[in-house]
Amino acid sequence: MIDSWLVDERVTLDTHTCFVLWQCREPQYVNELRKQYGEEIINFLCVKKLLLPVDKVWEQNNIRLVELECTTFCNYKCEYCTIPVIPRDHCVMDMILFERIIEKVLRHPSIQWISLNNYGEPSIDPLLMERLDVIAQTDLQMVFNTNGSRLEPFLDRLRCMKKNIYHLNFNIPSIDRDEYHQITGGDLMMVLKNVKKANDLGITTKIIVNGTPDEVERKYIKFLHMFQAYENVEVYKWKTNDRSGILSNKYWQNIKNSYPLTGCRNLVNYLFIDGKGDLFLCCNDYNKKFVYNNIKNGEIRDLLRSPKLIEWKKIIFGNKNGSKEFICMHCAEMRESLCASYKLNETAKQCHSFPDNG
């Protein structure tokens, strides 16, 4: 199986089809490919957008989720988050900019979901109720990530706009009250109260179990038992990462990727916009070192053609090498991409010959 990020599908590939993709790491003439491997396989790969025209490849996008950094601050100090490590000035996105972004999002046909935070806590955003009113007038679905501690005043409003809620996600690293306080600085009881109220109001809710791989596996079953009677709640695992090397505590992963890189869906499926309207590369770019445009400069489809972004795409998808300090060199998601690419290459090497097309 392979994810085609441009068509939102998991595609099943046999060994021969993997071999075709492996061969097409370098540009090929499509008519020659059809002669060699047959119309069916090549047309299939083109339809799934796993093979693309050389002159169009760097313009391809399928933006599905927009993450807005409506606030830069949080009432928690979670040890797996960058905010306590590198505090930022408090910034709140103004409503004029917010409404302008929503208008442009609605004009971009592939976008389905919107999130109101990147690192900040949305429930302490002084303009949250106004933002919810704007979203309620659209068909956008919202991914609402929260620590849940300050959510109670907004739950009735969220209930009234259930059509706009894709998931209400509570990030909960522990269901032991003392351990929870040690990790976050917050009060677990207040969060659990709001989880129960969200469930009782019929809001589709996820509990995200945060932690290192070992911690998540150790705690997951306990979470399932605690929330098994909650009709509208599902429990999910989320293995934390060190945000491309920013965290130096127990979450540090010591990742050292190597070139050439092998691609990342953040560049294809997600759009990240900060409180000033700047478009930045990915969720791990906490310090905004990779800003490539501003939402005020045009429509989203045009902003995504930024020369800066295209150059970074070429690095991220292995067309050229970047510096040792490039953000992806210490990224856990890129390491997974490199491992997946290695497996694909190994599968392709198993195909030493291709059946005669005739």
Automatic annotation (TrEMBL):
Domain of life from the UniProt record: Bacteria
Keywords, alphabetical: Iron, Iron-sulfur, Metal-binding, S-adenosyl-L-methionine
Source organism of this protein record: Bianquea renquensis
PROSITE patterns, per the entry: RADICAL_SAM (PS51918)
Pfam families xref list: Radical_SAM, SPASM
Record-given protein name: Radical SAM protein
Chain ranges of the Radical SAM core domain: 58-274
One annotated GO molecular function: iron-sulfur cluster binding
Calcium recorded as keyword: no
UniProt-listed InterPro entries: 4Fe4S-binding_SPASM_dom, Aldolase_TIM, Radical_SAM_PqqE_MftC-like, rSAM, rSAM_sf
Signal sequence extent: none
